[in-house]
Amino acid sequence: MRFRRRLTLFAVTVAAAPLALGACTSDRRPGQQHAETRAKPEVTVTPAEGSRDVPISGEIGTDVKHGRVTAVRITDDKGATVEAEPREDGTGWVPSKPLAPKRTYTAEVTVTGDSGDTVTRKTTFTTQPKSSKPAISSVLYFAGNRTYGTAMPVTVAFDPPIPKEARADVQRRLFVKTDPPQPGTWSWVSDGSQVYYRAPDFWRPGTTISVRSALEGLPIGKEHVGDTDKRATSKIGRQVQLEIDNATKRMSVFQDGKLLRKLPVSLGKPSTPTSSGKMVIMEKHDFTTFDTRGSADPYVVDVEDAQRLTWRGEFIHGAPWSEGDQGYTNVSHGCTNLSAANADWLMGVTQVGDLVTVKGTEVPLDEGNGWTAWNVSWEQFAKGSALPVPAGLQPTPTQAPDPGAVAGGSPEPAPSASGG
User: Fold this and answer.
1) Which residues in the chain show pLDDT less than 50?
2) Could you tell me the fold of the domain covering 135-236?
3) 24 counts as catalytic
4) What is the SS3 assignment for 4?
């Protein structure tokens, strides 16, 4: 879902009238102009006139026949203008920030019909008092003014998870706009703890992505409401992908489709194997501490040049203690060990949002253990949407993009402190 334009509005609901199809006379004389009549516009607007206890997440809905909305004006009870952004599908306008509780809003909507006639409807409604229901905490893993890799999924995490029956309502309040346009869809992790947004192919370098998670005051099921309204705009940088092969104990580093280097690695030993699958770099740390006290294999170790791949503590990092094993034997606690020099070099190449593919290890990557949006085909990803996928994005089974392919080409929870 994306906003293509912004309108300045005042609280609204609208109604309109149906059109009659044009008809032509069968007995017209030669040369007589074709006679035609057109139906007048018809519109239905929500909230209905006089509605009370409207959630502060309320928006102006319009159902138009035989015309289009040409003006929307929304004001509060003090006469101040309320800005709103139109939904891409034309079904309504979403205020640019949550409405205030216990306030009255008025909306005027003008519809211009195919006949040229116009209809204006006015509606007035009142929002509910501040909700006393507990809020579901949400985290938007897409910060503003950053540069991300081409596999960066827009990720929203929830605590507690969103029940299946409430996911469509939540998804309708999550908005993504890309410039240049590269449409995608949202897909839910099966337990409702995370939802991802991506396109069928990787983002094109240079793309600007603007995100809004407009959940404040949104009723979620019967017991909860959404917590906050968040926005962020960032860009996509160069195309970088890493491929790690357990059979060769090597990491291949690609940039813009070209192989830069092959680096020896040591992966997880048999008792703590590394996950195989398509992951995304989630965090980068020049220095951090792995502390697994309380686990079956407790240890505390300081590491440099660490890049997180999963919530459960799999990282790529410098491991000078295992340099003799790198390229030959797996000795880690599940992480990808590099020499200090190679880990330092890699930190200068990668970005949060770069794709990392690991293959040939003993265990597969679990759904939701990290940002796993690319660990499934587009066909399977689209099935995870709680709303219909736009016709132009209906999936067809395709081969997964090659790790060395240029992005956009053709074909082309609380984190664990563990590491190893």
Assistant:
1) 1-35, 398-416
2) Immunoglobulin-like (2.60.40)
3) no
4) coil
Pairing of strands 250-255, 240-245: antiparallel
Q: Which residues make Cβ contacts (< 8 Å) with residue 78, sequence separation at least 6? A: none
Q: C-alpha distances in angstroms, 232 versus 4, 55, 207, 343?
A: 16, 24, 14, 30
Distance CA 115, CA 127 (A): 36
Positive/negative CA dihedral, 253, 257, 260, 261 = positive
The residue among 99, 104, 97 whose CA lies nearest residue 125 is: 104
Give the active site residue among 66, 224, 317, 333. Answer: 317
Contact at 8 Å (CB) between 291 and 302?
Answer: no
Catalytic residue among 66, 224, 333, 335: 335
Tell me what pLDDT residue 413 has.
46
CB atoms within 10 A of CB 39: 18
Quick one: tokens of 229? 């309204």
* Start-end of CATH 2.60.40.3780 domains in the chain: 7-22+34-126
What's the pLDDT score for residue 260?
98
Class of the CATH domain delimited by 7-22+34-126 = mainly beta
CA atoms within 13 A on the CB side of 334: 22
As a whole number of angstroms, the distance between CA 378 and CA 359 comes to 20
Convert the pLDDT of each residue in 139-185 to its tens digit: 999 999 999 999 999 999 999 999 999 999 999 999 999 999 999 99
DSSP letter string over 254-272? EETTEEEEEEE-B-B-TTS
Q: In 10 A of CB 410, how many CB atoms? A: 8
The helix/strand/coil state of 20 is coil
d(C-alpha 30, C-alpha 32), whole Å = 6
Pairing of strands 363-364, 275-280: parallel
- From the CB of residue 61, how many other CB atoms can be counted at a distance below 10 Å? 17
Question: Under 8 Å CB-to-CB from 379, ≥6 apart: which residues?
Answer: 395, 396, 397, 398
Beta strand residue intervals within 127-164, DSSP E = 135-141, 147-148, 154-159
| Ranges of H-type helices in 322-393 | 340-347, 378-382
Ranges in the chain annotated CATH 2.60.40.3710: 135-236
> Is the Cβ–Cβ distance between 146 and 281 less than 8 Å?
no
